[in-house]
Amino acid sequence: MSPPNPYHTPDTANADRCFQPLTLGHESMSKAQIQVYIVDDEPSICTAYARLVRAAKMEPRTFGSVEDFMLSNFADENACVVSDVQFPGTSGLELPLLLNRAGRSLPVIFVTAFDTSETRDLAHERGAAAYFRKPVDDQALLDAIVWAVRHGPAV
Amino acid sequence: MREATDLKAALDEHAVVAITDPNGQITYVNDKFCAISKYSRKELLRQGQHIFESDHHPQAFFHDLWQKVEQGEVWHGEIQNRAKDGTAYWIDTTVIPFFDDRGKSRQFVAVCEDITEQKRVEAELANKLRLQRLLVELSSRFVALPSEEVDAALEHTLQLTAETLRLDRCTLWQYVEHLHGIVCTHCWQRSGYPLIPEGFSMSQNLPWVQSRVMNGETVCITGTEDLPPEAASDTKTLHRLGLHSKIMIPLIVHGHVFGAFACAAVSVNRKWQPDEITDLKLVTQIIGNVIGRQRAELREEELRAELAHAMRVATLGELAAALAHELNQPLAAILSNAQAALRFIADDNIEPTEMQAILNDIVRDNKRAGNVIHNLRSMASKRPTSREWCSLNELVSEVVELMKGELIGEKIEVCSLLAPALPCVMAARVELVQVLVNLLVNAVHAMKDTPVGKRSLEIETQATLDHVVLRIRDHGHGLPAERLANVFDPFFSTKSDGLGIGLSICRRIIENHSGRIEAQNHANGGACFQFILPTVTV
Question: What is the enclosing helix (H) or strand (E) of A35?
């Protein structure tokens, strides 16, 4: 079964049927947990995503800004970033470029409350693994995380 | 002797003459006396002076007269008498006492002159003078009268008019659109006179009078018999109210009738003199101008409120994207929290404390979203806003929160310097929010061309002895120096797409709160707006 493209247009981005729910097999359970780096300047959002990630048996870490995340000690393997787009400081859209420049290979999923066609196009162009509009449905986000971790960043 | 007869004939020709015996009983009257008193000579002889007495003079007046003449002095004065038919007449009277050899009073001779006409003219003149004084007083009274004092002044005007013209009741009526008729708005009446009955409707009870007045005609009724047959319903009402004479003059401004000024005599028929009608029309004109001005101000106030509302809605439209963000944030957190909880429960893997934390967060975010909606609703609301104690610091935080999306989107850094323990102000909350949103939106627009990284906004609050000050400084292009003086005028705008009405509404709102608003350019660039509001209500 070929995995569906997680890159969605906003109109269908949050529809459940877009993803065939992927259940995490025993093999991934036995492996190290997936690391999910949540980057959002809104603490309540960070907390909520972190709970969701934990409920799906993955391991969350939260950051309030792009800078904080970039300065942290993060893994490339079996990991993924779920980031907001708009920040008081560095834009989330800079993340794929910064990672690339740092020679890191880590998929980035965007979840934004400011959904414009420019943002979407730019996110696509910079190789985002997925793009969602807030509020995002749990299954869609979790599926995208699993898909992104399996396939790595689109370069 | 011949000479005396001639003299008497001449006197009779010229004057009203009566002679009484020492007891005051009439022994002689001439023809002129009979003519003026309308009694025959036969009816008068042997009568006392009391048969003419009107109630105009107090008893002491006649007592004084008789005492004087009995002491041998000549009495001179003006007397109002009543004729046989009840009408009053005035005589200028000289009473000369005559005594016999022993010094006992023999007879009293009264020589009088008819001054009724003179008295009437005098009274009319005095009346005219009073009316004119009233008119002068009224016209000066209403010059620059604060609008909250107008009603009291109008009522006083009604009282003055009624007292001057000796009327029982003066009323003002104004047209009310949805009632299709005029209703009494101001009333003065002599104490003891019946009030206008509850539920009295001009259009139903006096339809003929109302239609005439609304046509711009003055309705003048001395008695109900003046009314034409088609005014049958009006006649009935006037009878029922015991109303005799009535005058109703339309209030007209710019050719538009919007009410009437009415005067009434309740128990007696009253003839409306042409001069009086002219003067009453002048009174009406003065009142009309005042009420016309009041109504225009009211309309203007309504228009301003509508404009302010339209501006709020327009601002909301402008901020729609940012506001959607403000709603989406809590909604996103709520959804993820709830779905996480569902997953924990499905796995039967949740600590009660974790569940509690999730639910608490959901409640908090729900309230946050509710607040955003509440703010939107009050800004979109058309209802007039009531005043309450507001903290400027809270308002600043609230507005910055509301506009967070917009500010972040534009890469603007907000630096708030809020004075601790800032006193509250009595204000219409949503109006102050509107001012703040307006100033912030302006600042955001002004910094469109400012390099990212230099886009900062300083918001400062400060307390003085009895005022609070709020200052907003941006780092934008500043205001053109030559137009600093009129940035608050309507239609001034430095924005190509703006109507330029926002700041004029801000000024209006602040001034309505007894404050003032100022604009200047900061020495180090950017514009600085500040407003000052009193913390003590005046």
Answer: strand A35-39
DSSP code for B496: S
CB B231 within 8 A of CB B208: yes
pLDDT tens profile B278-296: 888 888 888 888 887 777 7
> b/e for B126-137, b at 16 or more Cβ within 10 A?
ebeeebeebbee
Asked if the interface predicted TM-score (ipTM) of this complex is over 0.85, the answer is: no
Judged by DSSP in three states, B183 sits in strand
Interface contact A44-B361, CB threshold 8 A: yes
**pLDDT-based confidence at residue B100 (cuts at 50, 70, 90):** confident
pLDDT in tens, B476-493: 988 888 777 777 876 555
Higher pLDDT, B127 or A56: A56
Assess A59–B contact: CB distance below 8 Å, yes or no.
Answer: no
Beta bridge partners of B28: B19
CA dist A130 and A153 (Å) reads: 10
How many residues would you count in chain B?
A: 538
A45·B343 Cβ contact <8 A: no
Q: What mean pLDDT comes out for the span B74-100?
A: 91
Q: Delimit the domains of chain A by residue range.
A: 20-151
CA–CA dist B444, B412 (Å, integer): 8
- Per the listing, tokens 């790595």 go with A152
Phi, psi of B201 (to 5 degrees): -125, 120
Which of the residue ranges A11-15, A48-52, B56-60, B282-286 has the most confident prediction, judged by mean pLDDT?
A48-52
Q: B363 and chain A: CB distance < 8 Å anywhere?
A: no
Using one digit for the tens of pLDDT, what is the confidence trace for B370-393? 887 877 777 777 666 678 889 999
A20-151: CATH homologous superfamily? Response regulator (3.40.50.2300)
Q: How far are the Cα atoms of B43, B44, B54, B87, B309 from residue B84, in angstroms, in the given order?
A: 10, 10, 11, 7, 75
| Distance between first and last Cα of chain A | 23
Question: For residue B344, what is the nearest residue in chain A, using CA coordinates?
Answer: A55
Which residues on A lie below 8 Å from B343 (Cβ)? 52, 55-56, 138
Predicted local confidence at residue B378, as pLDDT: 73
Find the CB nearest A47 among B330, B361, B413.
B361
Report helix, strand or coil for B365: helix
How close B363 comes to chain A (CA, Å)? 12
Listed in sequence order, the residues at least 6 apart from B142 whose beta carbon sits closer than 8 Å to its beta carbon are B150, B153, B286, B289, B290
Q: What pLDDT sits at residue A57?
A: 93
Contact B242/B221 with Cβ under 8 angstroms? no
Burial class from Cβ neighbours inside 10 Å (0-12, 13-18, 19+) for residue A103 reads exposed
Helix (H) or strand (E) holding B126: helix B116-141
Cα–Cα distance for residue pair B20/B106, rounded to 1 Å:
9
